[in-house]
């Protein structure tokens, strides 16, 4: 202090929009955002998902339009989820080339070609009658190794439908290796694996279950991780990279920002984070009540995930954010 006044004034670098723009440490750009989308088999109209205001189960047609728009906005990609009409014990719809997800991948690629990355969720939960991410053994437990061979086939089905990126998300041990081996054997050397490496059993997945008409009873705690554990997250990431993951994901994002930072500091591959359904629903619900400013809140949320260390973010706000970023 000289003469009672501060010598150093951090406020100087906050004093105008122009100077704030110059010194911003964290960037948020449309190319860093991936839009998750749901495509419902047999739908004639898009169907609103009540717990996720503004998100729909698309028809094949509306999905194509939305994907073309995503490309125009300069997004990093779309992550496709299928909602089949019929489910069975083993999730056959996931392997069927005429199954909704494989059809949606083909539609997407015919719409955007290589202009936009088309990514697909590689998991059985949307396709099984019991709603688990894998097949069950005779005791009703999720059978890890029996599931792996199905994931391997599913990966090849998605790659042959044209997916640029596959996202194994079922948390089976060895899933990345099984999918990589199968893709390579089938000649899909350039198909990228975006591994859901770290996935915590989370209450914040709630709205997603409506989004995919999930039939799950019980929980996923025997395969998804325990939110108390950070070291286990690093262990999962190491395994996935050793098995051939090109990009590793942490999911959910907001209750796990510390994990995103630890993973970013630990690995040399790109890190993705999934800003999940419950994180979206909380902001939308508060905004609908007039309790927070939606646009500010979504940009602040996405910025926090980037600042924590995520290179790319899967978010239901991808288009809204791109509009806001392109017009500011
Ligand atoms: C599994 C999968 C889930 C999500 C993405 N992939 C659900 C789960 O593990 O229960 C959740 C996404 C979200 O909540 O937004 N296929």
From TrEMBL:
5-aminolevulinate 2 binds at residues 277, 316. It catalyses: 2 5-aminolevulinate = porphobilinogen + 2 H2O + H(+). The keyword Transit peptide does not apply. Transmembrane segments: none annotated. The keyword Magnesium applies. Its EC number is 4.2.1.24. It holds the Pfam family ALAD. The active site is at residues 199, 251. GO terms for molecular function: porphobilinogen synthase activity; zinc ion binding. GO terms for cellular component: cytosol. GO terms for biological process: protoporphyrinogen IX biosynthetic process. It comes from the Bacteria. 5-aminolevulinate 1 binds at residues 209, 220. InterPro entries: ALAD, ALAD_AS, Aldolase_TIM. Mg(2+) binds at residue 236. Catalyzes an early step in the biosynthesis of tetrapyrroles. Binds two molecules of 5-aminolevulinate per subunit, each at a distinct site, and catalyzes their condensation to form porphobilinogen. Belongs to the ALAD family. Homooctamer. This is Delta-aminolevulinic acid dehydratase. It comes from Kribbella capetownensis.
């Amino acid at each position: 202090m000289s003469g009672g006044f501060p010598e150093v004034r951090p406020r100087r670098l906050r004093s105008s929009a122009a100077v704030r723009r110059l010194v911003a440490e964290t960037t948020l750009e449309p190319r860093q955002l991936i839009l998750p989308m749901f495509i419902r088999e047999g739908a004639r109209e898009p169907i609103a998902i009540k717990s996720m205001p503004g998100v729909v189960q698309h028809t094949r047609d509306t999905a194509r339009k939305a994907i073309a728009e995503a490309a125009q906005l300069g997004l990093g990609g779309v992550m496709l989820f299928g909602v089949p009409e019929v489910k069975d014990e083993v999730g056959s719809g996931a392997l069927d080339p005429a199954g909704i997800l494989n059809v949606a991948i083909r539609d997407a690629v015919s719409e955007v070609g290589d202009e936009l990355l088309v990514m697909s969720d590689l998991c059985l939960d949307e396709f099984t009658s019991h709603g688990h991410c894998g097949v069950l053994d005779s005791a009703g437990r999720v059978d890890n190794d029996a599931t792996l061979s199905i994931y391997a086939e599913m990966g090849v089905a998605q790659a042959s439908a044209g997916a640029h990126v596959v996202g194994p998300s079922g948390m089976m041990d060895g899933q990345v290796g099984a999918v990589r081996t199968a893709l390579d054997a089938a000649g899909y050397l350039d198909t990228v694996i975006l591994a859901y490496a770290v996935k915590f059993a989370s209450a914040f997945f709630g709205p997603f279950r409506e989004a995919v008409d999930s039939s799950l009873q019980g929980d996923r705690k025997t395969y998804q991780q325990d939110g108390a554990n950070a070291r286990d997250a690093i262990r999962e990431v190491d395994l996935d990279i050793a098995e051939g993951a090109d990009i590793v994901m942490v999911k959910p994002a907001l209750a796990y920002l510390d994990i995103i930072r630890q993973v970013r500091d630990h690995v040399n591959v790109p890190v993705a984070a999934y800003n999940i359904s419950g994180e979206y629903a909380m902001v939308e619900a508060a905004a609908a009540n007039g309790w927070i400013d939606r646009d500010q809140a979504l940009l602040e949320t996405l910025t926090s995930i980037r600042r924590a260390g995520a290179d790319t973010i899967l978010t239901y706000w991808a288009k809204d954010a791109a509009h806001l970023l392109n017009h500011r």
